[in-house]
Design a protein that fits this description.
The protein is α+β, with helices and mostly antiparallel strands. The strands form two sheets. It has a five-stranded antiparallel sheet with strand order 1-6-5-9-10, with no helix packed on it. Strands 2-3-4-8-7 form a five-stranded antiparallel sheet, with no helix packed on it. It has six helices and ten strands; from the N terminus they run E-H-H-H-E-H-H-E-E-E-E-E-H-E-E-E.
Amino acid sequence: MEKIAKVYTYSQATAYGKAALFMSLPFIGLGAFFALGGFGLIPLPFKGFPRSPIFGAFGATFFFCGSTLFVYAVQSLLNRRRIQKASKRHFNEPWFQDFPWNPHGMRDPAGRRALGSILKAILFCVFLTPFNLVLIVDDPGSWIFWIVIGVFDLAMILIVANALYHLAQFLKFGYARLSFYSFPYHPGDKLVVGFSGTPQDHLKATLRFVEERIETSGSGKNRSIELVCYQHYDEQKELPSPTINLSPVNRQKHGNFQSELEIAFDLPDKTEWITELSGTPVRYWELVVESEQPGIDYRTTFPLPVYGRS
């Protein structure tokens, strides 16, 4: 088992349930109130209310943090509702209870990933705005404050650059699709899928089994909670070019994709290594397809429906 760094994860354990939803509402309400008052967009609510851009920026920070928590909480509640419906409709098909699979295949969330990176960059910029305004408008005088904010500003530049890179990656390559040649797959089976997208040359595919855990370290004031990813298994192979043509039936099924590249792996015969995207911890098989390209490299990932035999 190897600890790995993942850009995109499936775990939402830090923002589950109604508790997170109700926790977000005070941040949204108070943040909006202080932001509008600080920027002078509403009449002074009471005497002595601090009307200043700095105070308004702090309010905007609270608002965006609360809104982010609200969105994650709503997503988790909707997912719970989907699981409840699927457990009744597909009581003998646990894979549909775990994830809203399409038995024919799936499109990668390239657009959503790029949008998520941009929103994270915006949120971080909003968070740092009031602290930078303090430096510009009201110099605190301490060089330590300048160094700390400078380090965070450097991190902000890197986050923004990363978001722009992901946006450029999406604009260059667009969406990709993975076709399932059978559904679901089981431990010990031969996993065969079809990859459709650009590029289709110099591609490398990686099959891996990943586990996402929420781990706690330290104690007291030094206690921290983080999401840690572990890789239990991986296998890589170079993919040949050119592509193979789809049959007329598959063309109709998969829309505008006119060709696909067949990718095949042998799944290890380990019954405990199955996909559990709605479990705790989150565990899943994943296919990573990547390619080194001029200027901007290509990379996308797909979860795979590998489940035990019912």
